[in-house]
Design brief:
The complex is a heterodimer.
Chain A: H1 3-26, H2 31-52, H3 58-77, H4 79-87, H5 104-118, H6 125-137, H7 141-148, H8 152-168, H9 181-201, H10 207-226, H11 233-246, H12 272-285, H13 293-304, H14 311-327, H15 331-345, H16 347-354, H17 363-373, H18 378-391, H19 395-413
Chain B: E1 2-11, H1 20-39, E2 55-58, E3 62-65, E4 73-83, H2 86-93, E5 104-109, H3 113-116
Antiparallel strand pairs in B: 1-4, 1-5, 2-3
The chains are: A mainly alpha, B alpha+beta.
Chain lengths: 414, 117
Amino acid sequence: MNGNELIPHLFRTEYRKLVSVLCYHFGIQHIETAEDIVSDTFLAASESWGMKGVPENPVAWLYTVAKNKTRNHLKRNKLFEQKLSPEIRYAGTESEEPEPDFSDRNIEDSQLAMIFTVCNPLVSSEAQVALALNLLCGFGAQEIADAFLSNREVIYKRLNRAREKLKEADIAIAPPAAAEIDARLDNVLTTLYLLFNEGYYSASQNTILRRELCAEAMRLVYLLSENPLTARPSVDALLALMCFHSSRFEARSGQNGEIILYDDQDETLWNRELIRHGTFLLERSSTGNVLTKYHLEANIAYWHTHKQDSAEKWENILQLYNRLLQLEYSPMAALNRTYALSKANGKEEAIREAEKLGLDDNHFYFSLLGNLYSDVDNTKAMQYFRKALELAHSEAERRLITRNIERLSSGATG
Amino acid sequence: MTEFLLIFRRDIRKEAQPSPEQMQAAVKHWQDWIGGIAAQNRLARQPQRWSADARVVRPGNLVTDGPYAEIKEAIGGLLFIKADDFDDAAEIAKGCPILEWGGNVEIRMAVSPEDAA
C-alpha cells in the first residue's frame, strides 16, 4: 500500500482508537479537543508521508504524533495547570506531563468506554446512531446525512444536541462496571443493530457508503465480542446475524443498484466465509438462558443461507417468527411471518392472516398481498401491486414493484 | 383497544389425553395461533406457560396436589390480548386449538377503576 491508499485505510482502523484514547484521557467536556488532535494527526500524516514517504511503522507514527500534539496543546492553552489537569486520569509522578496511553490494553479499555458513552439512553436512539458514526467511525455530518437520506444541517444539529446532553450530564468516559453490563449492554446492542440496519436497509443508492456502515457496525460488535467484559451470547448472536445478512451483499443489488430479491439472487455470489463464521458464532451464542431477539433473527437468517426451499426450512422460519413476534412486535416481522406462513401452511391460510394485519399505510403489506394473490386471483394481485406502487418511497422500490406487475401481466396473458 | 384475558380449560381425565403425535401437532397449532395474534400486534402481555402440576390450598391450611380428584376440567393456560370488545375477542378465541380437544375458552375483559366505580 502506498501513502494514498494507506491513509484512508488507517483512518478506518485507527481513527476510533485515537479518538477513544484521547477522549478517555481528556474526559467528556473536551471531546472536541480530542477530535481536533486526531484530525490534525491525520492531516500531518498525509503531508509528511506524501513528501518523505511512509514511515516504517505508520501506526506507531500516528500515536507518537498524537501524543506530541496533545502535549503541545496542553502547553499552548495553559489548560494543563488550570482546569484540565485535575480531570486527567494519570498515575505518573507530578513532574511528568500526563500523556495519552496508547498501549493495547488502554486502547481496548478506551474503545469500550467510548462505545458505552456514545450509546447512552440520555440521547435519542437515532442520535446515538449518528453519534456512533461520528465519534467511533470518523464519519462527518455530510456522510451521515448521505447515509440517512437527510441533510447536513439536520445531522449537524442532532450531533451537537447529543454532545451537549452528554456534557451537561457530565457522563464519565469509563468502561462500565461488571455489575452494570447487563443493564447497559441492551441499549448498546440496539444502537449497533440500528446502525447496521441503516446500512443494510437504507433506501440510499450509495452502496459503498451503505456497506461501510454495515462494516463499522460489525467492527464495533466484534470489539464487544472479543472483550471478556462484554462477550455475551447476545453479542455473538447479533454478530452472527450481521454475518449472515452481509454475506448476501454482493448478490442483493444489480449493476445499476436495483434491488435483487432473495428468490432471484445468484447464490454463488453469497460470501461463504461470512456464512461459516456466522454459523460458528450462532453456535457459540447458544448458551445461557436468555433468548434474545438477536438469537431468533440470527436463526432466521441462518435458515435463509439455505437457498433450497424445504418444508423443514419454512416450518423453522415460521416458528422463529412466531416467537420473535411474541418477544417484540414489528410490522416487518409480521409481514415476514405471513410470508413464511404461506410457504409452510399454504397461501389460503396466509391470505386469511394477511388480511388481519391491517398495515394499510405500508407498501410492503400490499406487495405481500400481491404476491400471495398471484396465481390465486391475479386481478386482486394486480390491484394490490398497484396500491404498493402508489405507497412506495424510493425509486428502487418502485422499480421492483413494477417488475412484479410486468411479471404478473405477462403470465396472465401468456 | 381493551385488554382481555383468555382462559383455556380442558378435560384432564386420562382417556381424553392426546397421543404424542397429536401433542406435536398441537404445539404447532398453538404457536401458529399465538404467532398470528402477535402478528396483529394484539398480544397485551408476553405469553407465559404454566405448569400442569398444581397445589390447592383449602381452609385449615390444607394443601393438596392439584384439583384433579374432584373436577374433570382444569385451566390449561392464560393469554392476555388486546381487542375492541367481547365480539372481537371472541373472533380471536375461535382460532384457539383447545377447541379441537373439546376444551373451551372463557373471555374476561379488563376492568378499569372508573368502570368498577
